[in-house]
Amino acid sequence: MEGKSISQAMLRRLPLYLNVLRSRPASQPTISATALAAELGMGEVLVRKDLALICGKGRPRIGYSVQDLTAAITTFLRYDAIDEAVIVGAGKLGRALLAFDGYNEFGLNVHAAFDTLVNEAETTPGGKQVLPMSELEAYCVSHNIGIGVLAVPASAAQQACDRMVACGISAVMNFAPVHLNVPEGIVVQNENFAAALALLSKMPRSSRPAHETR
Questions:
Q1: What is the Cα–Cα distance from 157 to 151, expressed in whole angstroms?
Q2: Average pLDDT in the 23-28 region?
Q3: To the nearest whole number, what is the mean pLDDT of the chain?
């Protein structure tokens, strides 16, 4: 939304709102900020502020049209405009990411995975390709790839990232536990499993939802 300052924290919340809206039964065509906040265990004021930035205020005593709010968030997140992507790293993580079949819901078309240990093209059970790293540059140019998913060991991450940037990739989702140095204008989103596991391991059991305890 032009002229609005959107925080990364808010960008992380918007897909959560979208999940709730998409699971809403057709018999419930509207939803209030109060109900949405309660569904996600968030503060009502925070949810209201987020939605106001996306599509304004809801109607008094009615709330928001689920259909209109879903469309507004989908458009804002560009889920309705497909971005082309590849995965670099075809180990267990890379192949698991390649096998995921729900990318289209998030406006992403993941074409293939590339790996230095692959010598000739392979086809996964899901019909995706795993290709030698030597083919990355030509593939990215011919398929207009703009997003790269990095699923390599930390020791190989910077070199792999450099190659992705050289291919014209402008946004990198990084699963390697390492800081990447990139040119100005390149977006890096770090997905750090180690940090997430550390946080979960230190969370007191008493503060975890009952259904998550064992």
A1: 8
A2: 91
A3: 87
What is the third-level CATH fold of 83-196?
Answer: Rossmann fold (3.40.50)
Dist. CA 16–CA 73, nearest whole Å: 11
Task: Name, in order, each residue with C-beta under 8 angstroms of 115's C-beta and a sequence gap of 6 or more.
Answer: 88, 89, 90, 91, 94, 130, 131, 132, 133
DSSP state of 15: H
Could you tell me whether strands 129-132 and 122-123 are parallel, antiparallel, or unpaired per DSSP bridges?
antiparallel
pLDDT tens-digit profile of 37-85? 999 999 999 999 999 998 888 888 888 999 999 999 988 888 877 889 9
**Residue 167 has what DSSP assignment?**
T
Span 187-214, mean pLDDT? 65
pLDDT over 60 at 125, yes or no: yes
SS3 content of the chain, % helix, strand, coil (to 5): 45, 20, 35
Is the pLDDT at 167 greater than 50? The verdict is yes
The span from the CA of 2 to the CA of 6, in Å, is 10
For the chain, the structural domain boundaries read 8-76, 83-196
Q: What does DSSP say about strands 129-132 and 108-115: parallel, antiparallel, or unpaired?
A: parallel
Contact 132, 118 (CB under 8 A): yes
Domain at 8-76, CATH from 2.60.40.10, 3.40.1080.10, 1.10.10.10, 1.10.150.20 = 1.10.10.10
Nearby residues of 71 by Cβ (< 8 Å), 6 or more positions away: none
